[in-house]
Amino acid sequence: MYLFAWLIPWIFALFFTKTSPSPVEIPVASDTTFYQNPVFEPVLADPSVIQVGESFYAYGTEDNWGEEGGYHLVSVLKSDDLVHWEYQRDAFDRKPNWKPKGGIWAPDVTQVGDEFWMYYSFSTWGDPNPGIGLAIAKAPEGPFVDQGAVFFSEEIGVKNSIDPFFLEEQDKKYLAWGSFHGLFLTELSADGKKAVGDKIQLAGNHLEAAYIHQKDGFYYLFGSAGTCCEGANSTYRVLVGRSKNLAGPYVDKSGNELLDGKSGELVLKGSSGAEGVAGPGHNAEIIRDEQGQDWLLYHGMYLAKPKLANGTNRRALLLDPLLWIEGWPSVAGQVPGKGESPAPVFQK
Hints:
The chain is mainly β. It has helices spanning 8-16, 153-156; strands at residues 34-35, 48-52, 55-59, 63-64, 71-72, 75-79, 86-90, 103-112, 115-123, 131-137, 145-152, 165-169, 172-177, 183-187, 200-203, 208-215, 218-225, 237-243, 265-268, 277-281, 287-288, 294-302, 316-325, 328-331, 341-342.
């Protein structure tokens, strides 16, 4: 029995009715394993995930988990199934020092050859000149050794330059980035340490947390809109546009350009009720399991417990299958999954 079988009722409900579907007994194989959100807590905000061999590694923003785990300078988690995660260590032994103060936010990790490159934001709330840095490790769990600033906001000419995403295309290296002052793309030097190309604007001022995914001849630009960090009042949600070209223009299903500052096809939003989730967003890289199902990791805050005792936003790690309907991605129901669901399939 393929994993896709259990998704069919949800696809029908999502696209062909405006009412809630009746309870359905979903057939699954006898050896199917199940999981339930969240897949890691208390905190893994702004996640990035990579696969190395048969293992997965996830990285999250610098945070203080207080009495639920203490301070972490970019947490590194490990899993063999995307469901069961174990904390390994902090990515850094010491904080980078090319800014006098700030947090290390939104790490983006990619394997480049035999190395692991982490692009990260260095910023404070309201920082007039945040920047993006690069750190490199010899192993996925680190330690990551800082290589310094790639650029500052004032240097690159884009306010609030945070939330980096690295990709390689036709032997060239690129960085996408931005936070509510446009999403941008630039070419990087061969060593990845400096921007060398002109900056190209990909989306308007309504998005941050850029992620670009290639599928079936399209580039899909994911971004998060709304507020990320207001606990139960957070309005974060994930939108997407697509283009035949890396540099755009990216459009939604209706053909509206993401550059207009309000467009984007909805992938995921918050939910209400006893198991409601506020502010789901800042998705990680899409991972495909061994039955061809795509999976989306992202953070969100449960309405029942949106903050830690110390006031930190309790941005737990959530996982849901990503559906592709007529060339457009969406989580079932466009809200975080709840209850038990069939888990990703990977060889043990």
